[in-house]
Input
Amino acid sequence: MGRINPAFWLRIALSAPRIRQEEWGMLDGLSKWLIAIRARFLIMTLLSCAIGGLLAFKVDKFHFLNWLLCTNFFIFAHATGNILNDLIDYLLGIDSGDYLRLHDEPHPLAHNLMNLKEHIFLTLATGVLALVSGIYLIHQYGHLSLLLFLLAVFFLLFYTYPLKHIGLGEMVIFVVWGPLMVGGSYFFSSGEWSWRVVLASTPYALAVTAVLLGDHLDKYKQDRAKGIRTLPVILGEKKTRILTITTLLFQYLTLFYLVATRFFSPVMFLVLFTFPSFLKAVKILEAPMPQKKPNDLGDFAVDTWPRWFRAVTFWHTIRFGTAFLAALIIDVILSRYILIL
Output
C-alpha cells in the first residue's frame, strides 16, 4: 500500500498522468482506483446532474438528498462503465499493440498494472456503489425510476459491445448525458418527469456527444482496421469532422431556441463567452488529424498528444458546460429571488 497523497488525487482528477509499472506499486488504493476509472472525465457527469438539480431548484421542488443519491448513482455508473470498457476491449483484443487508447493514459490491464482478477473485482465493487443508490431511488419513486435504472444498466453493459461497434455509440452518449442524466436528476430531485427539461438538456448533451465523436475520429484508422464500425468508420473521416462541427454549433442554436421560448432567461446568453473556444475547435476540426506531433499543441492538447480531436472537443465541452452551469445558477437566482420581488 502506497503513501496517501491527496495532491496526486487532484492531479488524477484533472489530467491523465503517465504511470510506469514500478510507480504503480507505490500508489495508494484511491489513486489506483481514480486512474482506473479515468476520473477526469467524471466532471461531465457531475455537470449533467448539477444542471438537472438546478432546474428542479428553479421550480422550488428540489430534494437535496435524493439529488445527491442520484448523482452518486450516475457518477459511479459512469466510473463502472469506464472500467468495464477497458475490460471488454482488452478481452476482445482491441486494447493491444499500438492502439491509441494505450498511448494517452494508463490502461490497468494492457499496461500490466492489474491482473484480470483485480480488475474484475474493481469493476464489480464500483458497480455496487452505484447499485446501492439506484435501489434506494427505485424504492422511493417506483416504476419510472426502475425504467431509468434499467436504461442506465443496459447502456452500461452494452455500450462497448455491441452498440459502439454498430455506430450507435454517439446516440447512446447523447441519450445518457442528456435525457437520462439531466432528465433523471431533475426527476429524482423534484419527483416529476419533464419533457421540457429533457429538451433543455440538449445543448450540454450535444457537447458531450462531440467529445465521443472526437475520440472516435482520433481512432478512425485503427478502428477501421480492427473492424470496429464507429460512426466515423461508417460515415468517413471528413463527414464526421463536419458532423462534429455541426454538433458543436447546435449547442448554441438550441440554447437560442430555449431562450426564445422563455424556458431560460436571456442571462443564459452568458454562455456565448465560450464562442472563442468553439471557433478554435472548428479550426482544428476543419483539417485532418496531423500525421505527427505539431510544434504548437495549443492550450488544449499540451498533455494529451497523440489525442487531437478528443482533446479539443473535451477542452471546449468543459468550458461550455461550466459556463452553462454558471449562467443557469444566475438564471435560477433571478427566477427564484429577484424577478418575483
